Amino acid sequence: MVPSSASPVSSSHKRYFFEKFGITERLLERCLGEALSAGGDYADLYFESVMAISLGVDEQIVKSASQGTSAGCGIRVISGERTGYAYTDNLNADRLLHAAKTAALIASGPAKQPVQGFTEAPAANLYPMEVGGFDLGKFDLGLAARLELILRADRAARAYDARITQVRANYAEEVRRILVAGSDGSFASDTQPLTRLSVFVIAKDADGKTASGSAGAGGRAGLGQFVATKGPEHLAQEAARGAILQLGAVPAPAGEMEVVLGPGWPGIRCTRRWGMAWKRTSTAKARRRSPGSLGGRWRARW
Question: What is the pTM of this model?
Fold first, then answer.
């Protein structure tokens, strides 16, 4: 059994698979036993579950919405220098045991008994998640809270300047849960959230000139991270500012220009005149080797 001294964070990761898919420690031991039934040296089970949701708003209308869950288990058996793999996306006991028997075919020898019970090493909570968000494996806040984020971004972008004519905002999140059990009694689990909010705007002036701007933010945390500089209002204003700024932009200058070499080692500029070998040559040395180059044309006109 996993010791009671295991950290609460690790226990909550493990509990998700146990409660959601009916995985038990006895089932893990049976699968590892089947994986070593042909005499492998080591076996492990890798469980993964991913929940994802995305929302998109265009012109203040929800244009896209999706939510889905995928889960599976990969089983690995090592026998000498050979490795056998099997996978199933059905986590019931029969399919797991069948996958374990398939991975075991890489070996050919007497069956080995895996260690009974598991020892879970303490692990830091690298991605803390607020209660009511991801932590219980449910999207408890529902679509309303997520939709409100992108609608706030839409309103803020339109309020920034009357020349903002179109706003698109998108929100995406993913929660990846992992559980690993080894035949040596090792046990580990983790939960990895990932969320992102992005805003895209189009501005148009009285002359019909258009420009676009975008901004986004995200990270391995829940909805609570979208405040201050990651808040929907700030992101919308940054996207709108970029678009409005481009409306007044003028073309960059082009044509012949004076080139000034600074002191020291501006080697990249020297290559056009003297070749690649001058990349590592100082300006002073280049002038000594090519007298009269100061103030002259670096290359002939094409």
Answer: 0.73
